[in-house]
């Protein structure tokens, strides 16, 4: 495991296709998916 964790935010994702968007992020090599709480 590397010293860095890639955790992109889904804040700008297309929420109408959220499942597909998250699948793309994971397939791109993200370690985690970051959900912004406001």
Largest sheet: none
Mean pLDDT: 91
Q: What share of residues are in beta strands?
A: under 5%
Evaluate the radius of gyration: 11 Å
Please report the number of helical segments.
Answer: 1
Number of folding domains? 1
Class computed from helices, strands and strand pairing: mainly alpha
Query: How many strand elements?
Result: 0
Low-confidence stretches: none
The best one-word shape is: flat
Tell me the distance between the termini: 31 Å
Strand-and-helix sequence, N→C?
H
> What share of the residues lie within helices?
25-40%
In short:
This protein is mainly α and 38 residues long. The protein contains one helix and no strands.
Description:
By secondary structure, the protein is mainly α. The chain has one domain. 26% of the residues lie in helices and 0% in strands. The chain contains 1 helix and no strands. The chain has one helix at 18-27.
Show the helix and strand layout.
Blueprint: H1 18-27
Record keyword descriptors for this entry.
single chain; 38 residues; mainly alpha
